[in-house]
Structure formats: structure tokens, C-alpha cells
Specification:
13 helices, globular, about 50% helix, alpha/beta, about 325 residues
């Protein structure tokens, strides 16, 4: 696997896997007008929280005008992770290879259970991308590769992802860009999982690959309708289907949400407007960022597609 390909695969997964491609319930009521965009008002700051999907297609665009307007009004863009390869990418690549691969002579097959192995080997045999490199990849990094492969098969591309869209726009406008987390932090998080949890994570990814198209379509429906309850159901159903992954979700969502909320509070304490583009799964649920901000008495308003409301008013 080439250096750039390894780095890009890692970045894709760090963005993709934190918003699981799992089943979402159908939207109902008036949710069709809502957007996955919230305006949070503090004293004296304002934060727009936009829940993103980290891979995309051309038909995602154009976005609703209010989304683009909110972004343009903001003084700063904040993304979940750095979307631009940093100057010290060679150091991060070295870290990835150290933490994400086994030494020569060892193999992932020595570190996974029989059930996972029974699903992995046929998948590798049918997947040319993994044929020459899978053996030395740790289970969490194999999950990286599977996420990349399956997204590509469905026609999705990180270059068309919503995070990338705003990062590129901010660079063109010379708008300051910040991040909530470092790549080092995310690498350490993935590598901190025990072998048992990594085995479970890989198995769930292999099982999901069998019906990934259906899962992504359902998640997109929840996002497009601004249905936060349905998006939360993606997480709840995933944990119900794979209860052994609950500790992983606590680390990947709950604990990270706490730290992200604290940073967003800091933005709200400055006399500026900040546009935060973050994986949609971090916003929802009892320990989600929106719930935490409401509990701290910030004003949280979900925004709607004004063009749709205007059109309906004419009928």
C-alpha cells in the first residue's frame, strides 16, 4: 500500500467510522422541512452546528441556501478533524504504521476469533484492494479499509463529503479553519481498543458489508429530512444489533461528545459566529452535543429550509 494511500485511507476512516452506516427509521410529521443544522446562541457568541456525512456524491449539492448563508456569515469554520494533510504527515504516517500494523512474521489471523476469520478470508478473496496487504493490518485498520472500499463501491467520495465542501470553501474565502480533534488523538483512540473489541469491530464491519447500500440509503434519508431522532436510532439499533460494541460506542461518541461540547461552549463565550461541521451522530441522543448544550441553558434552534416554507405558503 503506497504511503499516500495509507494516509488517505486512515483519514477517510477516522471521518467515516464515527458516523455508522446503520438503519434509520423513516421520517415523520413535519421533519421533511427541517435541516441537520442548529443555531446555538450564547452570550455573546453564536454557533451553527451542522451535522455532516463525511462522504458524498454530486447529487448532495447544491445545499439549502440557509446552510450556505450560515457558513458565509461565520467568522470561523471548525471541522471534526484536520482535512488537509499536515506538514508533518511523515511523522503521522510513521505513527500509523507503528500502531496500525503488526511486525513482520505476525498476522491479523493470530489476533481475531474464528467467526471473524471465517468472514474475513472470503471478503479478502473477493476484494482485490486488500489481497496483498491485509495480513499485517490490525483489526481496527482493516475496518478502515473496509469502510473505504464499501463507500467507494456505492459511489461515494470523501472529496464530495460535506466536511470537504466547507473546508475547500473556507480556504477559498481565506476564512480561518480550526479543528475539534487532532489526528494523533483519533489514532490513539482507535489503537486503545483491546484486541477483543477490535475483533468485534472488524466482525461488525464485515457483516455490515453484506447490506451496506440499504444502510447508507436509510441514514441519508434521516439526514436529508433533518430527523435527529431517526439519526439517533441509527446508533441505538447498531448497539442493539451488536451489543458487544457498546464500549466502543461509549468511547467513540459519549466521551468525545463531552470534550467537543466543552470546546463549543468556549466558542459561545466569544463575540463571534462559528460554523461547526461535525459528524451527525455526535449531535443526537441524551449525551449528544445538542442535549448537553440545552442542559446548560443555551438557546438551541433547529433551522429549516426557508425556500420550502416559502413555497408552501404560496399554496
Amino acid at each position: 500500500m503506497k504511503t499516500r494511500a495509507i494516509w488517505r485511507a486512515c483519514l477517510i476512516f477516522l471521518l467515516l467510522c464515527f458516523a455508522p452506516l446503520s438503519r434509520a427509521s423513516e421520517p415523520g410529521g413535519d421533519t421533511a422541512q427541517k435541516l441537520f443544522l442548529w443555531k446555538v446562541t450564547g452570550s455573546p457568541g453564536v454557533v451553527y452546528l451542522f451535522g455532516t456525512i463525511h462522504v458524498g456524491r454530486a447529487d448532495f449539492y447544491p445545499l439549502a441556501p440557509i446552510i450556505e448563508t450560515s457558513f458565509k456569515e461565520a467568522d470561523t469554520l471548525i471541522t471534526e478533524a484536520d482535512l488537509n494533510e499536515p506538514q508533518d504527515s511523515s511523522r503521522l504516517l510513521k505513527m500509523l504504521l507503528q500502531k496500525g500494523t503488526y511486525p513482520a512474521g505476525d498476522s491479523v489471523e493470530n489476533h481475531i476469533g474464528q467467526q471473524t476469520r471465517a468472514h474475513l478470508l472470503p471478503y479478502v478473496a473477493a476484494t482485490k484492494e486488500l489481497a496483498s496487504s491485509y495480513a499485517r493490518l490490525k483489526p481496527w485498520f482493516l475496518t478502515v479499509s473496509i469502510a473505504v472500499i464499501e463507500a467507494k463501491r456505492m459511489g461515494f467520495d470523501t472529496d464530495k463529503g460535506l466536511d470537504r465542501h466547507f473546508a475547500d470553501a473556507a480556504a477559498e474565502m481565506h476564512k480561518p479553519i480550526g479543528t475539534l480533534e487532532t489526528t494523533e488523538f483519533q489514532l490513539e483512540l482507535m489503537n486503545s481498543f483491546s484486541e477483543e473489541l477490535q475483533d468485534r469491530l472488524l466482525l461488525s464491519a464485515l457483516l455490515d458489508a453484506e447490506h451496506k447500500t440499504e444502510l447508507m440509503d436509510d441514514m441519508l434519508q434521516a439526514w436529508k429530512s433533518g430527523n435527529a431522532d431517526a439519526m439517533e436510532e441509527t446508533k441505538l439499533r447498531y448497539v442493539r444489533e451488536y451489543p458487544q460494541l457498546k464500549p466502543v460506542f461509549e468511547k467513540m461518541f459519549d466521551q468525545r461528545n463531552d470534550g467537543m461540547t466543552r470546546q463549543i461552549e468556549q466558542f459561545l463565550q466569544t463575540p463571534k459566529t462559528t460554523f461547526v461541521a461535525i459528524g451527525a451522530g455526535h449531535l443526537t441522543g441524551d449525551r449528544g452535543i445538542l442535549s448537553q448544550l440545552r442542559s446548560k441553558n443555551y438557546t438551541v434552534e433547529q433551522l429549516q429550509n426557508r425556500a420550502m416554507k416559502s413555497a408552501e405558503a404560496q399554496h
